[in-house]
Design brief:
This protein is α/β, with parallel strands linked by helices. It is built from 18 helices and 13 strands. It has helices at residues 20-29, 59-64, 78-89, 102-105, 110-116, 141-147, 168-191, 201-206, 212-219, 254-263, 267-270, 278-283, 285-297, 301-308, 321-326, 328-332, 374-380, 385-393; strands at residues 11-15, 34-39, 53-54, 57-58, 68-72, 93-96, 121-126, 196-200, 236-240, 246-250, 315-317, 336-340, 346-350. A 6-stranded parallel beta sheet has the order 5-2-1-6-7-8, sandwiched between helices. A 3-stranded antiparallel beta sheet has the order 9-10-11, with helices on one face. A hairpin with a 2-residue loop joins strand 3 and strand 4. Helix 1 packs across helix 7 (168-191). The longest helix has 24 residues, at 168-191. It is elongated and about 85 Å long.
């Protein structure tokens, strides 16, 4: 690339599998960090076989592992642990999402690693964190979403709680991991010392729960499931249209509400002093949702948007992935990237977020083959071809 990437001077060692740890490292790789992913020989990250496969490889993998180098090491072997230790001696960040105690069992505790590399930053992502009575429990994203409060408020009040259709708990933890790593790097710049970034999945979810805790602490209110509406902020809901489509409308600002009521030929509501602020509208939530719903039910989705968009009322269709790929805004913002696999087959990958004006991120290559960079990375540590062959024969590398 002609433009230097902002994290190009960082070396990141990724230890772990599936979602939280690998997504954390992926976000750094997208902005230029050298990410060396350690995988089990012959198996690799289980995500390589998750969901929809193409030629035996997960299509998800090509996005999750983009810009990473794959090194196949059997971490249960002392020789492999020694190789990782050598890699970490010159690394800036280690990202791991094993169960607490696993690295310690392999002789790769932060204390021992930082003794050789005092500036090392270790991002540790786990279900319940590195301390506390639950630390040894198995914790996936679904458990973190449940314990963090998200599942309890998601869905309709007369039905069981539902999940968001993606592994949102893992991804939130990963993003907090990146925030922690960059914060720790800033501290290292002034102190010269690294530290541990301890991210628990349930805490990452809980951190997103807005006003739930202060409301409960002050009033005893337990927020419940409210379906498609946003409780206490009115009107903000999903409404059915004449053609069977749904429209999301957020007309909860005072001026926006007035504009919407005028746009749908309800000037009486626009000028009603009892609806001039959110507190007044909350008292009449059901009435307002009924009125808006009756209006949208008389019009197609396109007709609804044709009225609300000129009135500057936030409203939109609910996109499927097909809608996303066809959308002009996604295309204009380079959010639908086209790449080619080794066999020439085209694959679509999501664009890089956020957009940096001077040093943007990029997809330099898609997720690599298992162990594709093993010999090259070990070569930089001084292992020649004969040494690599011997390690491969012994089952240490793949």
């Amino acid at each position: 690339m002609s433009t230097p990437q902002p994290l190009a001077d960082l070396k990141v060692i990724e230890l772990g599998t599936l979602i939280a740890g690998p997504y954390c490292a992926r976000l750094m790789a997208e902005f230029g960090a050298e990410v060396i992913k350690i995988e089990t020989p012959g198996e690799g990250d289980p995500l390589r076989k998750w969901r929809v496969l193409y030629e035996g490889n997960s299509l998800w993998w090509y996005a999750q592992a983009r810009n990473k180098k794959s090194v196949a090491l059997n971490l249960r072997e002392p020789a492999a642990q020694n190789i990782v230790r050598k890699l970490i001696q010159n690394a800036d960040i280690v990202v791991e999402n094993f169960r607490p105690g696993t690295l310690e069992k392999w002789g790769l505790s932060y204390e021992s690693l930082s003794a050789e590399n005092p500036g090392l930053i270790m991002v540790r992502l786990s279900g319940f964190g590195q301390t506390g009575p639950y630390k040894d429990r198995t914790g996936f994203g679904a458990i973190g979403e449940s314990m963090g409060g998200m599942r309890y408020i998601t869905g309709y009040p007369d039905r069981a709680p539902v999940r968001v259709g993606i592994s949102i708990g893992d991804s939130l933890a990963a993003m907090f991991g990146v925030i922690g790593a960059l914060t720790a790097l800033h501290h290292r710049g002034t102190s010269g010392k690294g530290q541990v970034v301890d991210v628990a999945l349930y805490e990452a979810v809980f951190a997103m729960m807005e006003s739930m805790l202060p409301e409960f602490g002050m009033t005893g209110l337990v927020r419940e499931r409210t379906g498609a509406s946003l409780p206490g902020i009115v009107p903000s809901n999903t409404y059915a249209c004449q053609d069977g489509s749904y429209v999301v409308i957020g007309a909860n600002g005072d001026a926006i509400f007035k504009r919407m009521m005028n746009a749908i030929d309800r000037p009486d509501l626009a000028s009603d002093p009892t609806l001039a602020d959110n507190a007044g509208r909350v008292k009449r939530t059901e009435e307002l949702d009924r009125i808006i719903g009756e209006w949208t039910a008389r019009h197609t989705l396109d007709e609804v948007l044709a009225v609300l968009e000129p009135a500057q009322v936030p409203a939109g269709r609910i996109y499927s992935i097909a809608d996303i790929v066809a959308d002009l805004q996604y295309q204009a913002r380079a959010m639908i990237e086209q790449h080619k696999l080794a066999d020439g087959k085209e694959i679509l990958l999501p664009g890089i977020v956020p957009k940096l004006s001077a040093t943007p991120g990029s997809t330099n290559w898609v997720g690599p083959k298992l162990g594709e960079h093993t010999d090259a990375v070990l070569g930089e540590l001084g292992y020649d071809a004969a040494a690599c062959a011997a390690l491969r024969a012994a089952g240490v590398i793949g």
